[in-house]
Amino acid sequence: MNTHIAQYNDENSVINRLKLPVYNKATISSTLSARGPSTTFMGTKPSQSTVRAPLSNISNQPARQAPIAPKNYVAKVPISSTTQTIQAPTSVPSTFKQPQPAVRQITPAVIHVPHFVTRNPPESPKIDSQYSNDPQHVTEFTHDIMEHYQRIELKYMPSSNYMEKQAEINTTHRAIVVDWLSQLHYQWKMLPDTIYLCVNIMDRFLSIKAVSRDRFQQLAVTCLLIACKYEEICCPAIKALVNAAGDQFTVEEVIRMERIVLSNLDFNVTVATLYPFLKRYLKCGRCEENMDVVWTTQYICEMSLSEYQSLQYTPSMMACSAIYLANRLNNVENPWNRNLEYYTGRQVSDIMPCVKFLWDSLKNQNRNSKLMTVKKKFASVRRNEVTKLVLKAIASANLVL
C-alpha cells in the first residue's frame, strides 16, 4: 500500500514539475460538451459528419472517375502576357541526350596451349576404351581433366630460385625437412597425393615469404595439415602433428600459421602436382602390367621431392622422365613406346635432359646417409625391393643415357 502511495506521489511530482495539464473524466466530458458536435475529434474535421450512412444506402456502383484530358491536350499556364504555349517535344534534342557508354574493346586472352595438348595423330591407341563401362575411370572427362592439368601446372609451380631470398634456410635444410615429412607420411599411411601437395604448398609459400630456421618445421607441419585436410579421409589431429615435431610449438601456433599460409596462397590448393600425371602416363604406357616399373617410378618421384633443383621442371615433365628412367632400369625393351608419345606429346629427345637430372640426383642421394626414409620405404617386399634394384644399377654403372 505504501509503495503505491509513494509511486502516486512521484507521478504527481513529475506532472507538477513539467507543468502538464491533468485530465480526468469530468474534465474531458465538460470539454466535449462545450465544443459541440462539430468539434474536431479523433481525426474528423468540422466540415465532416461523424454520422455514418447505413449499409443499405451503399450500392455496388463503381466510384466516379476523374475526367480524363484529351489525347492531344496541351496545358496553358498564364505566367505573364508573353507566355507561350509549351508543348512536350516528341524527341529529345541531341544536346540533352544521355551519352552512350563507350564500347570497351576486350582483347581475348591468349592461352598458350602446349603442342602435346593440341597434337592429334591420325590413329589413337584408344587406351581408355577398355574402361568405358567403369564409372570410376570417368573416361568421358579424362581428356578434359588432363588438358586442364596441362594448362594450370605452370600457374601453380613454385619459384625455382626462391632460396636466394631465404636468409636462414638452404637446400640442405629443405631436403632434411622433406625427408622428415615423408617419414610422417609413411608412418601414418597417407595417400600418395598428400606428400606431393604438401611439398608444393611449402615451396609456393617459401617463394613468397622468408621463413626463419626456427619456424621452418612449424611451416612444414602446417603444410602437411593442409594437404591432409584436402586429400585424406581421416585427417590427423593437430596435437598429434605437434607431438611428432617434439612439442616445439603449440596447437594455436599451427592454426595461426595455417591462416597465414592459406591467405598468402589465396586458398589455391587445387593444383597440378606430379602424381596425377604419373598415374595417367603409367596407365597410358601400359606400365601397370609390370609392378617393378610402377614401384621404381614412384621411388624416383618421391626421391625427387627432396631435390631443390627439380623445381625447374614441370610436373608432367618429371612424370615422363621418371617413367622412362624406370623402364630403362628394369630393362624394358621399348622404354618410350608409341602410347607414351601419343598421350604425352613428347619425344625421347624432349625428356632426356630431365632424365639425366633424375639419374644424377639418385646417384648423389645414394651417398647421403641422412635421407633414408624413401630408401627404407621402397626396400620392403611389398614394394618389390626396388631400392636394391636402383642401388645395384648405380653400383654397376651400366646405365648410359
UniProtKB/TrEMBL annotation:
Limits of the Cyclin C-terminal domain: 272-392
Gene3D superfamilies: Cyclin-like
Coiled coil: none
Organism superkingdom: Eukaryota
SUPFAM superfamilies reported for this sequence: Cyclin-like (SSF47954)
Keyword Cell division recorded: yes
Family per similarity comment: Belongs to the cyclin family.
Protein name: Cyclin
Organism whose genome encodes this protein: Acrasis kona
